[in-house]
Amino acid sequence: MRYSEMFLPTGRETPSDAEVISHQLMLRAGMIRKLTSGIYSYLPLGYRVIKKVEQIVREEMDRAGAQEVFMPAVQPAEIWMESGRWKMYGKELLRFKDRNNREFCIGPTHEEVITEIVRNEIQTYRQLPKNLYQIQTKFRDEIRPRFGVMRCREFGMKDAYSFDVDERGAEISYGKMFEAYTRIFSRCGLQFRPVEADTGSIGGSFSHEFLVTADSGEDGMVYCTSCDYAANLEKAEIDRPEKYEVEESELLPVEEVYTPDVRTIEEVCQFLDVTARDVVKTLIFVADDSPIAVLIRGDVEVNEIKLRNYLGCDSLELATDDIVFEVTSSPKGFAGGIGIKSDIIADYSLINMKNFVMGANKENYHVKNCNMERDFAVKDFADVRMIEETDTCPRCDSPIKFARGIEVGHVFKLGTKYSKAMKATFLDKDGKDKYMIMGCYGIGIGRTAAACIEQNHDNDGIIWPLSIAPYHVIITPVNINDEKIATVAEKLYADLEKRGVEVILDDRDERAGVKFKDADLIGIPLRITLGSKKLSEGKVEVKFRKSKDVDEVALYNVEDFIVKTVHEGLGER
RNA sequence: CGGGGCGUAGCGCAGCCUGGUAGCGUACCUGCCUUGGGAGCAGGGGGUCGUGGGUUCAAAUCCCGCCGCCCCGACCA
User: Fold this and answer.
1) What's the complex ipTM?
2) Which nucleotide is nearest to A541 (CA to C1')?
3) How far is CA A564 from CA A225, A309, A470, A496, in A?
4) Domain parsing of chain A, residue ranges
C-alpha cells in the first residue's frame, strides 16, 4: 500500500490518558481509537495485526482438530437461567430487554449457547468427541476498564468448547488445546508461561492460564527454579508444615494485657515488643451470609481465592464493623480466637505457633501466650494464605521466584458443570444416558497483540515480529522528488507485491527523518532505504527494526533478499 | 461503589486563585527555502472553553446540579 493513500494517523505526543506502553504506542501508531470507556475501534493498521493473530489462531485450532463456528453475541436470559449464571454472573453481564420486554444479555462467553446447540444435535457417543470454536466480540461490563485494549469491556476473543464421553477423553482434548496454545503464542513471538490457575466464575475442575511475562502484567505468578511448577499467585499452593514440638517452649499461662488503641499488627508488635511472626491476626469474613473467623500468622496475607474455594461459598467478603462487633463483642482491631462467636479456620501457618499474641475480643486488650486447643478450638486447618517469595516449591521444595504476566489465554477443564445444568447428555456404549465432559478454552485476541507490544518495543516505537506485523516491509525513498529514486522505489514496490510480500511504499513528500520516525513507530520489521548516494553505487540499505542492523544489498538482489528474509522469518520453507 | 484528578483547537497544555477582546507548542492550509532521523522563514484557517442553571453590567474564570474521562481501592474468565 502507498503510504500517501493510507489511513494511518500517527502521533508524536503520548496521549495523556494512556498508562501502559502498549496502549500509548497503539494510540500513537494509529492502530486504535477509543469510542468510550473500555470500547475501542481498530483502525486499518491495528486491524491488520488483529487479523494476523486470528489467522494464526485459526490455523492452530484447525490443526488441533477443532472446527470454527459463529454464535450470536446477543443471548436470551433463559439459557443463562438454566445454567444458573443469570444470578451468579453479577454486574459484569450486560443485560437488557427487547421491545417485548424479554430479557437478554450480550455474551461475555458462550458456554450456554454452545451447550444448547450440542445437546440438541448430539445423541450418541459415536458423535463425540467434538471441539467447536469461534472468534467473536465479547462484552464484559468491567468494573474498571484500563490499559487500553488490555482490559476493556468489548473485546475480540477466541473461545473453544470441547465435548467428550469421559474424563480421559476430556483430558486428551485439554492436552490438545494446551499444545495448540503453546504453538499459537510461540508463533506470535511471545515469551510466555502456562501456569496453574483458579477456575473462577467459569467453574470446573482445573485450568491453566497462559501468561505473557511482562512487568506491567496484572497477574502475579510464582514459578519453581528447579521443576516445572508454575502457578498464578492466587492459586499457588503451600504445603502443610510438619508438626514439631519445640522443647524449650512449654506452654505459658495466658495473660491479658492492656493495649489501649493498639489495633494493627504493626502497632501490636511495637507495643509488646514482639515480631509479626509471634502474632496471630484474626480476620472476620462473611461467607454466603454467615460469619467465619480466619486465623493467620501476623506476617502473612490471607488468600481470599483459596479461602473461597475451601469454604465452597459463592460470596466472600470482609465483615463490616457491626458484624465484627457482633462476633467479637469488640470494635475492629481486637479480634481473637478466644470466646469468638463463630467457627474458626486456622491457616497452616499457625500449626507450629506457641504462646502467641492475639486480640482479646475486648476493646483495648490483647492476650499473650495463647495456645490452640488449650485456649480455644479450631474447626479446621487449611491452606488459605498468599504464597511468599521465601516459601519453597510445593512440588519439589526448591526455591521459587515471582514474576508478573498478562493473561492471554486460559484453558479450563469444566467437567459436567454445564452439561448437568443444561442436560447435555449422550447415549453411551452401555446404553445409558451420560453427561458430556466439557472443556473451554479462551484467547484474548486484542490482548495478545497488546502483550506483544509490551514485550517488543523500544524508545522509537513498536517492534513487530514478522508473524503478526501489519506489513513485512516498508520502502523509504529518502526523496520522492528525485526521479531516479522514485522510479526504483516504484519498481521495487510492484515487484515485492507480486512476490506476495506485504509492503508499504512511503511515497509521501516528507523529509527522510519524518519517514524514519513513522516507520520505527509503527514497527515494520524490515525497511528498505533508498538514497541517491547508495543508489548510484547500485546499492540499497535494508534495516532490521529489531536489531537495528543495516545490510547493504545490491539493487538487483534486494527483491530476492527480502523474499527470503520474510519467508525465513515466518518459518516457511 | 468509596477516594482523588481532569474536561479550553486533531493532539499536548497554559489561562481560572484575583471575572473584563481565548492563548502557547504541535498538527493542518498557502508560498519560499530545504531534503538521510519528527528542518527554517513568512502568511493563514480552526475553539458552543463538557453540559444545564445561578450570581454579575460582564463568567473559561465564582456558586450549584448533571455528564464524560483518567488514576487509586474494592471487584473481576
Assistant:
1) 0.94
2) B36
3) 39, 54, 18, 11
4) 7-237+402-453, 255-382, 471-569
